[in-house]
Amino acid sequence: MKKRVFILSIFPEYFNSFQEMGIISKALNGERAKDIEISLEIINIRDFAKNNYKSVDDYPYGGGAGMVMKADVLADAINLGILEEYKIKRENIHIIYPGPRGKTFHNKKAQALAREYFSTNRSTELVFICGRYEGVDERFIENYVDEHISLGDFILTGGELAVMSILDASFRFVEGFLGNRKSHIEESFQNKNIEYPQYTRPLEFEGKTVPEVLSNGHHKKIEDFKLEKGIEFTKKFRPDLLEEKSVE
Ligand SMILES: C[S@@+](CC[C@H](N)C(=O)[O-])C[C@H]1O[C@@H](n2cnc3c(N)ncnc32)[C@H](O)[C@@H]1O
C-alpha cells in the first residue's frame, strides 16, 4: 500500500539527504517494508507566491522583529498544491504545524503517528507545514492546522529539521522499516528505560575491556546484564523517566 507525506517548505533541498541516505532512504525507496511504501511529496511554498518577487512572507501587522509567512500563499499551497493536484478531500489530510506551542514530541507520539498514518488500514495522509521567519499568519493556523508538535523548549530557525526528526522517529515504527524487527523494542524509552551500553571490537581499548558477560555467549546472562545496565543507566542519566507520568 502506498502512503504519502506532504511537506510544505520554502527549502525543499533540505530533504534531499534525508531521502537519499541511510536506513530511511532504503525504506522510502521500497527496499525495506513489503506492505507499506511511503513517499515524501515536497511542495515548494514559493510556487504559490502571488507576485513577481515570489514573496512568501510579509511585514507583521503591529510591527515587531522579522517577517511572517503569508496565509493566502500557504492556503493555496494546501488547496491547489495538495487537494486539487492530488485529488484529495480536506477530511483525508491531517495538517501538522511543528512549532514551540505544540506538545513536546516523544517516542510514544512517534509510535502513534506510525500506527495512525503509516499502517495499512488508514487512508488519512499527513501534511507538515515548515514554518520560517517569525512563523505563520495566525489566521492560516486557525483555518487549516489540525495539530502542533514541538521538538522541545528551544527555537529552531525553521520547521524542516523538526519534520525530519518527527518522520525519522515515526518511520522506525513502521512494520518492516527496520531490518531487524527487535531493534526498536530494545531502543531507549521503550519500557521507560534508556538503553544498556553497547560495545564492539576491539575487545581491549585504552585499558578497558568489554564486560566479560557479553563475550561469553551465555544468552540468559547477557539478557540479565542488558536489563540491569538499562535500569542502572536510567537511574544515573535519566532518573526523570522513572517518575510515573503518562505521555501522549
Ligand atoms: C524562528 S521559528 C519562529 C518562532 C516563533 N516566532 C516563536 O517565537 O514561537 C521558525 C519556525 O521554526 C519552527 N520551529 C521553531 N522552533 C521549533 C520547535 N521547538 N519545534 C518545532 N518546530 C520549531 C516552526 O515551524 C517555526 O514557525
Descriptive notes:
There is one protein chain. By secondary structure, this protein is an alpha/beta fold. It is built from nine helices and nine strands. The strands form three sheets. The chain has a five-stranded parallel beta sheet. It has a two-stranded antiparallel sheet with strand order 3-4. A hairpin with a 2-residue loop joins strand 8 (204-205) and strand 9 (208-209). It starts with a strand and ends in an 11-residue tail after the last helix.
Summarize the structure.
The protein has 248 residues and is an alpha/beta fold. It contains 9 helices and 9 strands.
CATH structural architecture of the largest domain = 3-Layer(aba) Sandwich
How would you write the strand order of the largest sheet?
A: 2-1-6-5-7
Strand content: 15-25%
- What is the N-to-C order of secondary-structure elements (H for helix, E for strand)? EHHEEEHEHEHEHHEEHH
Overall pLDDT? 92
Q: How many domain units?
A: 2
Layout: helices, strands, pairs:
Blueprint: E1 2-9, H1 16-20, H2 22-28, E2 37-44, E3 57-58, E4 68-69, H3 71-84, E5 93-104, H4 107-117, E6 125-129, H5 138-144, E7 147-150, H6 160-171, H7 183-186, E8 204-205, E9 208-209, H8 212-215, H9 219-237
Parallel strand pairs: 1-2, 1-6, 5-6, 5-7
Antiparallel strand pairs: 3-4, 8-9
Helix pairs in contact: 3-5, 4-6
Bound molecules: S-adenosylmethionine.
Residues 98-100, 130-132, 134-135, 150-152, 154-159, 162 line the site of S-adenosylmethionine (SAM).
